[in-house]
Amino acid sequence: MATEPQLEVTGSRTLPQWLSDRNIALAFTTYQAGKLFLVGTNTEGRLSIFERTFARAMGMCVVDDSMWMSSLYQLWRFENALAPGQNHDGYDKLYVPRIGYTTGDLDIHDVAVEDDGRVVFISTALSCLATVSEKYSVTPLWKPSFVSKLAPEDRCHLNGLALRDGKARYATAVSQADVGDGWRDHRRDGGIVIDIETNDIIATGLSMPHSPRWHNGRLWLHNSGTGEFGFIDVDSGSDEFVPLAFCPGYLRGLTFIGNFAIVGLSGPRADGTFEGLQLDEELASRSATPRCGLQIIDLSTGNIVEWLRITGIVNELYDVAVLTDTKRPMALGFKTNEIQHLISLGEDLSGN
């Protein structure tokens, strides 16, 4: 019998020190393997790798001590249950899934929290921006003007979301198709960026763009079909994508810490979605093979300063986030009984 490939995670030699110096850890998701990973450092100065199982773990964002993450048919809000200085089995943050919204399979991609605390996300199935509902699966908020109907058909592969000034502002889509699964015919150069506020298409000609993020006065994103990470200077009126770095993999997932970008890379997919793109040609010209993992990029130079590589059962990543004020975080899931026995108390308001 064939044995299942083992998971192996390796990092650049100085990655543990890089994380420790900034007192941060990294979180990332893989829907292909259904995992949430937390990467920090242990007391020996080595990488600490912690994982939990969540079916189709995808979009995520972190605000203070809260972490949001989408899964197959739910959206979860995790809260850190530890006070500063506390630890749990050697971990200094413990993320517990406290609130869950059952949405149905909306194929939630990017997730963000606006300044007023409202969680918003891209439903790729419905081709819209949405928020949670206490009564319904979802409350739609906006759709591209070229999408004629809210239907679970993944018409244009709307996927990425960027906040600006605390509000949802920019979205990426693979195409302007208005028929079910129509985006697959436009993977090489049909990608667009949309201004949610004005409904204007502010950039075209991209190849499967993902993960738009507003940082330091620029709109950063991945031109995933070419393997390039870069930016668009939207405030100058430019619609040009300016590449900063080439990464050897299909790019999805983007976050920042100071002057560094942390990007996610995926390997080839069995259904061929990532094939036939300029990325293939770029890899061949550099005698490179596609990788799965994370790369940390200096925004001043475009150089890769640190990296994390994943092999084995995990071949695709979706999103990445930075966890601050922590060396070694962990999370609870639903596959073990830990979540049954961990009890923490808020302020006692009983008056006794």
Explain this structure to me?
With 352 residues, this protein is mainly beta. It has one domain (11-336): TolB, C-terminal domain (Neuraminidase). The chain is 6% helix and 44% strand. It contains 3 helices and 26 strands. The chain has helices at residues 15-22, 278-285, 338-341, and strands at 8-11, 24-30, 35-41, 47-53, 60-63, 66-70, 74-80, 93-102, 108-113, 119-123, 128-131, 139-142, 158-164, 167-173, 191-195, 201-206, 209-215, 218-223, 228-232, 242-246, 250-257, 260-266, 293-298, 304-311, 320-324, 329-331. Strands 1-24-23-22-21 form a 5-stranded antiparallel β-sheet, covered by helices on one side. Strands 5-6-7-8-26 form a 5-stranded mixed β-sheet, with no helix packed on it. Strand 11 (128-131) and strand 12 form a beta hairpin. The longest helix has 8 residues, at 15-22. The protein is globular, with a radius of gyration of 20 Å.
Question: Features of this protein?
Answer:
globular; Neuraminidase; five-stranded antiparallel β-sheet; mainly beta; single chain; five-stranded mixed β-sheet; 352 residues
Low-confidence blocks of residues: none
CATH superfamily, please? TolB, C-terminal domain
Kindly estimate the percentage of residues that lie in beta strands according to DSSP: 35-45%
What's the order of the H and E elements? Answer: EHEEEEEEEEEEEEEEEEEEEEEHEEEEH
**How many β-strand stretches?**
26
Short description:
With 352 residues, this protein is mainly β. The protein has a single domain (11-336), classed as TolB, C-terminal domain (Neuraminidase), CATH 2.120.10.30.
